[in-house]
Automatic annotation (TrEMBL):
<dbReference type="InterPro" id="IPR006638">
    <property type="entry name" value="Elp3/MiaA/NifB-like_rSAM"/>
</dbReference>
<dbReference type="InterPro" id="IPR013785">
    <property type="entry name" value="Aldolase_TIM"/>
</dbReference>
<comment type="similarity">
    <text>Belongs to the radical SAM superfamily. NifB family.</text>
</comment>
<keyword id="KW-0479">Metal-binding</keyword>
<protein>
    <recommendedName>
        <fullName>FeMo cofactor biosynthesis protein NifB</fullName>
    </recommendedName>
</protein>
<comment type="pathway">
    <text>Cofactor biosynthesis; Fe-Mo cofactor biosynthesis.</text>
</comment>
<dbReference type="GO" id="GO:0051539">
    <property type="term" value="F:4 iron, 4 sulfur cluster binding"/>
</dbReference>
<keyword id="KW-0408">Iron</keyword>
<dbReference type="GO" id="GO:0016829">
    <property type="term" value="F:lyase activity"/>
</dbReference>
<dbReference type="InterPro" id="IPR005980">
    <property type="entry name" value="Nase_CF_NifB"/>
</dbReference>
<dbReference type="InterPro" id="IPR036105">
    <property type="entry name" value="DiNase_FeMo-co_biosyn_sf"/>
</dbReference>
<dbReference type="InterPro" id="IPR003731">
    <property type="entry name" value="Di-Nase_FeMo-co_biosynth"/>
</dbReference>
<keyword id="KW-0456">Lyase</keyword>
<dbReference type="Pfam" id="PF02579">
    <property type="entry name" value="Nitro_FeMo-Co"/>
</dbReference>
<dbReference type="GO" id="GO:0046872">
    <property type="term" value="F:metal ion binding"/>
</dbReference>
<keyword id="KW-0949">S-adenosyl-L-methionine</keyword>
<keyword id="KW-0004">4Fe-4S</keyword>
Length: 425
């Protein structure tokens, strides 16, 4: 099997590395945007060894410190990955920030994500910019009629889709994801869960589809019958069936046959999991504070007159930068906003402009800029009221509910006096 040239030290993408190089799965992604009929996610489980379970969930800076402690104990670690317990891109802000933090502190580490692909297309540039080198997309069907049997629902935004409509949407996003990842030079593996009587006769079609999109590797995984799921009674595919399916798919894609069906908090070499041993370390890292004071000391504000938070992010021509001083807060400077237009690139430029700010206070914001800014560590807050009163609550760590914009109020620029709808781009 030929190995992509950046995968020599990735044990999941290169069988030859599994005895010499290890990986750490960082459980920073609890939420999921689809419901698979074979999956039951658990966030405080120490007894089961399968995808979707972890003994704890970490915040991004906690994950960075946890990775540092693991590498000190096991220097053969070459990969930092996020594989759940939900979907990394359903938790895009935390995922992208974690990847960026690991890459900054541990240059040369391979950065790897495993996703269903639904929310990948909207973050393709951010994934490349954050240093992700490898990505796994789980594709169980390329026929919506089959996919409809596998997924109870697929959720995009606030809308939940079901049946073939859900499967068709997911496949569309997966197609965009694989093609877009390859365009950006990211190595792509396709995971497919083999489900007896459901999709076990469909794997060659998945392999052909993935090959045409330029995927690098395929991993056929036998379904693990999980209690309390729709498919718990179907049973696990036989070893003979799995061997035959890999043989059938091999003409289309190189096949991975050494998968160990890792937990979302797996640690160590494949087949030599140390997650139990590192469980105490993982637990202790969940108690670490998430420090922003040093690298993000300021707060940016979208304001018309400098007294109130009263501008939508997309309407602000500039941002005031505020910071603490003895006895209160001070306006430190004013920074111009990037020019309108340009889609996601506009918000990446803004994130760079506000890189020393922990928050940006706005009266409204769209989903794309929210995800981009959060991924760079600048957390948007939709609030209204006096700037200094809001800052006082933020720096004191107080409840911000009194300042938050109530849902249902205008959030798009056209509802705020601008006809262009620029704010939600």
């Amino acid at each position: 099997m030929s190995i992509p040239n950046n995968s020599e030290n990735h044990p999941c993408f290169n069988r030859g590395a599994k005895g010499s190089h290890g990986r750490v799965h960082l459980p920073v992604a609890p939420a999921c945007n689809i419901k698979c009929n074979y999956c039951d996610r658990k966030y405080s489980c120490v007894n089961e060894s399968r995808p979707g379970v972890t003994s704890a969930v970490l915040a991004p800076r906690q994950a960075q410190e946890y990775f540092a402690r693991v590498v000190a104990a096991e220097p053969r670690i070459s990969v930092a990955g996020i594989a759940g317990p939900g979907d990394p891109m359903a938790n895009a802000a935390k995922t992208l920030q974690t990847m960026r933090l690991i890459g900054e502190r541990f240059p040369g580490t391979l950065l790897c994500l495993s996703s269903n692909g639904l929310a990948v297309p909207e973050h393709l540039d951010a994934l490349a910019d954050s240093g992700v080198t490898h990505m796994t997309i789980t594709v169980n069907a390329v026929d919506p009629a089959i996919g409809a049997k596998i997924y109870s629902w697929v959720k995009e935004g606030k809308v939940a889709y079901r049946g073939e409509e859900a499967a068709r949407l997911l496949l569309e996003r997966q197609t965009q994801a694989v093609a877009g990842l390859k365009e950006r030079g990211i190595t792509v593996k396709i995971n497919s869960i083999v489900i007896p009587t459901i999709n076990d006769g469909h794997m060659t079609e998945v392999a052909r589809w993935a090959s045409e999109l330029g995927a690098d590797l395929m991993n056929l995984m036998p379904m693990f019958p999980t209690p309390n799921t729709v498919f718990e009674a179907l049973g696990e595919p036989s070893r003979e069936l799995m061997q035959q399916l890999r043989s059938d798919c091999a003409p289309y894609l190189n096949q991975m046959s050494h998968c160990t069906r890792c937990r979302a908090d797996a640690v160590g070499l494949l087949g030599q999991d140390r997650s139990r041993e590192m469980g105490g370390c993982l637990s202790s890292c969940t108690k670490l504070p998430e420090p922003k004071e040093v690298s993000h000391p300021y707060v940016a504000v979208a304001t018309r007159e400098g007294t109130l938070v009263n501008l939508h992010l997309g309407q602000a021509p500039e941002f005031q930068i505020w910071g603490p001083i003895p006895g209160g807060f001070s306006l430190l400077e004013v920074r111009p906003a990037p020019e309108a237009g340009g889609g996601e690139l506009r918000w990446k430029k803004l994130a760079e402009t506000l890189s020393d700010c922990r928050h940006v206070l706005v009266s409204g914001i769209g989903e794309t800029p929210r995800a981009v800014l959060s991924g760079y560590g600048v957390e948007p807050l939709e609030v209204s009221g006096f700037i200094e009163e809001t800052l006082k609550a933020i720096y004191a760590g107080d409840d911000l509910s009194a300042f938050r914009i109530r849902k249902g109020k205008a959030c798009c620029a056209e509802k705020m006096g601008s006809g262009g709808g620029m704010g939600c781009m």
